[in-house]
């Protein structure tokens, strides 16, 4: 039997055709453990898929890799769907993967709990790092898929509650191997927007694999390092991701996140009207109180008006004037009568009155009245006071001048 001699390339090409035409090999479903994982900058994923006894090389091109909902990791058990083919250049066969999913949730839950414990030890979940939410933000950044239901729900809720809030969308992948890095970049971009007051990080519901990007360490640190407060609204109420623990506030859904972020304009208006009424009532009450106080002061001012007081004092002064004049008049009358009396007494006892009756008064040279003969006998010269004047006469000492 004749056998054709083949080149290496021809052999590998032949084997490739045989393999590619095999129904089972081109529709393979394989499960195994990921090892030697390498995610190329081009987006292609290269790794080995192994079990206890064997392994096979695997490649997942970017167009398929973007559709997976989790981040592949070494040691992770997966189930893949693809086709087995031969790489002619090396003569090696490998599986070209089109779909990949976690083989059970055990590995994901384990990775979730391990990362959660690690970040908890590092303090990323501490309340001391939680930033307070602004009360009435007017500029909100939303980090989410621009085409998902989450962004529509958020816009509807915010617009309904307060149509004056400015919403800036920072689009990002929310699942797939590039989603975590994409989310990190979007959060940084939202922080760099100076007008941003609050960030909403959101995604609609999904399986744990679909939400896995929000369980990545890079996303947790991006939230922790954000200078602007972040509210997370990821999945459904029962879904808790690492991002929720790292955020400043966790909401159960994207719509709930929008509810928390924005105060209802109607509520604000009602509150303003309430305080307006309360302020008006307080002003009115204070005005009435001050008016009453002013009336009391006016009454007191009228009562103690200095003009009235001075007028009353003039009345008192007039009374005092009348009484003073009366007292002066009475005193003058009294003093006049007393003077008349004293004058009559003086006239009655005036020695000159005796002289007018023909008598005279003798005084010595010292002015003393001489009233006895003995005193007269001792004088040489005496003054004789008569009705029309006085004169001095010499008298011999020891002579008797009368009986």
Automatic annotation (TrEMBL):
**Localisation per UniProt entry:** Cytoplasm
Catalytic reaction(s) noted: Exonucleolytic cleavage in either 5'- to 3'- or 3'- to 5'-direction to yield nucleoside 5'-phosphates
Q: Which residues form a coiled coil?
A: none
Entry GO terms, CC: cytoplasm; exodeoxyribonuclease VII complex
| Residue span, Exonuclease VII large subunit C-terminal domain | 124-339
Which InterPro entries does the entry mention?
Exonuc_VII_L, Exonuc_VII_lsu_C, OB-fold_nuc-bd_dom
> Which Gene3D superfamilies does this chain map to?
2.40.50.1010
Which biological process terms from the Gene Ontology are attached to this UniProt entry? DNA catabolic process
Which of UniProt's keywords are assigned here?
Cytoplasm, Exonuclease, Hydrolase, Nuclease
Matching entries from NCBIfam families are given as: xseA
The entry assigns this protein to a family as follows: Belongs to the XseA family.
From the Swiss-Prot or TrEMBL record, give the protein name. Exodeoxyribonuclease 7 large subunit
What organism is listed for this UniProt entry? Clostridium cellulovorans (strain ATCC 35296 / DSM 3052 / OCM 3 / 743B)
